[in-house]
Amino acid sequence: MPQIREWSISRLMSTAARMFEYNWNRELQSLGLTHAGVMALDVISREGSLTQAQVAHKVGVQAQTIGKTLSRLESYGHIARERNTADRRSYLMVITDKGRAALGEALQIEQQLAGTGVLEHDELRNALEQVIRDLSNTDTMPLQVVQDTMAHLPEDSRIVAEDLNSSSSASA
């Protein structure tokens, strides 16, 4: 990569994140998943049956955006759509046993990709957490979306979501 040493930190972070997501998506293909699919499966797994609009809100995207992802998850048997008994006009997304198994494998793949050692430095982690805190206080990414997304992480990483919440409360 030409002149990588001259790149700004934000360009390095963005490139690293895109490369991580590209490699993760490549590994997820065998499971019939994408990064977006893992996020949706994780939300449905934690929250239970949800409408398409609710899944979209929890993931932090528009309902129309999540539609294609949910259709793909359904076609692979990761979720099922059930008629909403409270509102017969809508459907609820429910994770299947196959979806739970795929989610577990996807999270293992994520941990393997992140386990290169370089990403385990506390200083880097602290800096990235601060970037997330700073940017989540803007209108572009509500803090709740960040916290919901982080909830699938291992127990020691969940502390970050709690720290984000306490940091936001303290700075408000």
Automatic annotation (TrEMBL):
Pfam family of the protein (one): MarR
Q: Domain HTH marR-type spans what residues?
A: 6-133
Keyword list, A-Z: DNA-binding, Transcription, Transcription regulation
The answer to keyword Disulfide bond applying to this record is no
Q: According to the lineage, what is the superkingdom? A: Bacteria
Q: Give GO BP annotations, semicolon-separated.
A: response to stress
| PROSITE patterns with a match to the protein in the record | HTH_MARR_1, HTH_MARR_2
Which SUPFAM superfamilies does this one have?
A: Winged helix' DNA-binding domain
Instruction: Determine if Acetylation is one of this entry's keywords.
Output: no
Q: Which GO molecular function, any one, fits this protein according to its record?
A: DNA binding
PANTHER family (UniProt xref): TRANSCRIPTIONAL REGULATOR SLYA (PTHR33164:SF64), TRANSCRIPTIONAL REGULATOR, MARR FAMILY (PTHR33164)
Protein name listed in UniProt = MarR family transcriptional regulator
Q: Please spell out the taxonomic lineage of the organism that makes this protein.
A: Bacteria, Bacillati, Actinomycetota, Actinomycetes, Micrococcales
